[in-house]
Amino acid sequence: MPESPVKEITRRGFISKVGQGLVAANVAGTFLKAAAAQEPTVVPDAPGKKLGWAIVGLGRLSIYEILPAFAKCEKSKVVALVSGHPDKANKLAVRYGVNPKNIYNYQNYDSIRDNPEVDIIYIVLPNGMHAEYTIRGFQAGKHVLTEKPMANTPADCQQMIDAGRKAGKKLMVAYRCHYEPFTQEAIRIARSGELGPTQVILADAGWCATDPTQWRLKKDLAGGGSLMDIGIYALNAARYLSGEEPTEINAMVFSQPGDTRFKEVEETINFQMRFPSGILANCTSSYGYFQQSHFRVLGTNGYLEMDPGTWYRGNRMRRQHAGEEDKFTEEIEIPERDHFALEMDHMSECAMQNKEPLTPGEEGLRDIKLMMAIYEAARTGKTVRV
Ligand code: NAD
Fold first, then answer.
1. Overall pTM > 0.70
2. Residue to probe by mutation, ligand 1, list 123, 146, 147, most atoms within 8 Å of CB
């Protein structure tokens, strides 16, 4: 990596060799050159039509990630909020320029059908509520983006897919990583053969769930434990990095005995998958270990790693090749983009152009079926064929 001009001029040895005036002139010149070099040569077109979005559920993800991301969207704007807390909704409406008449609660949510400003509904509620609010959204005649995991059961997922088809509207599951450039490059490298044939994929995703009262620890609202919430990232990564669907699954579960947080859902789960080409995946998820989000693709001629791999920002990618063991691992630098803005604009584009989303309901259903198979393997202690 070339050093930046700023780093260059802060070197004490350099400053000591030349006078301050010369430094000032050089600094100005350096900055001008650097600024000119960085100036974009292509000016993006002014955003065209933006579709109107309603955000359902104003929790942490909506407040800290989704609503701020609209500022970076080219095809999406927030026009409505749905919440059980009018004070919070009013405050956010002022902040994001949402007309107060477009604030709904969970009771009058269905009347959103009469609001032509709303094209797309984004469900950001606890997992166990995704199916109901998605289906009601379709019945209101809107397109729906729902958060992951798609729902608690395959049957619920199928009902969501059917409701979308009946309404003639798009259904997308919010697998934001599929839309951001690091993940897209990782997928390209892993499937390109540049690392040689992939032998093994390792993926871990977890965090420490300290608040014992949160909905994520309640089976009816969460559907399961760490697997449903965060292990889904490891599962989905193994699938998108291999480009294949698993055929066999083994799993083991552990929850600290007597820990009241894990009365209804699991703490830690390890699972292994076999893919048709022979790739094996070892994955873990946990509500008990310190935050992790990484994966490694081990090929015959090299490896690729992302650590962190699926965070909202700050992800890093490295690779190393056979024959280059004496060199440092190569860091792959890619300009970072806002995952949520990319994901929402993709959905708007699909709605505008009548295209199938990259992560449709069927993709969400596949993960839910596989997670049910992982739980079955853990429960029975037997390999589950899928
Ligand atoms: P959160 O607990 O911060 O927010 C949940 C919201 O749902 C709150 O506004 C709450 O008031 C509302 N709600 C309505 N009925 C509720 C009920 N009966 N019990 C509890 N809350 C109720 O959760 P969050 O972190 O914003 O997660 C929301 C969804 O987004 C989940 O499905 C989660 O898996 C998903 N999520 C996705 C990502 C991602 O990166 N894509 C990240 C975090 C969360």
1. yes
2. 147
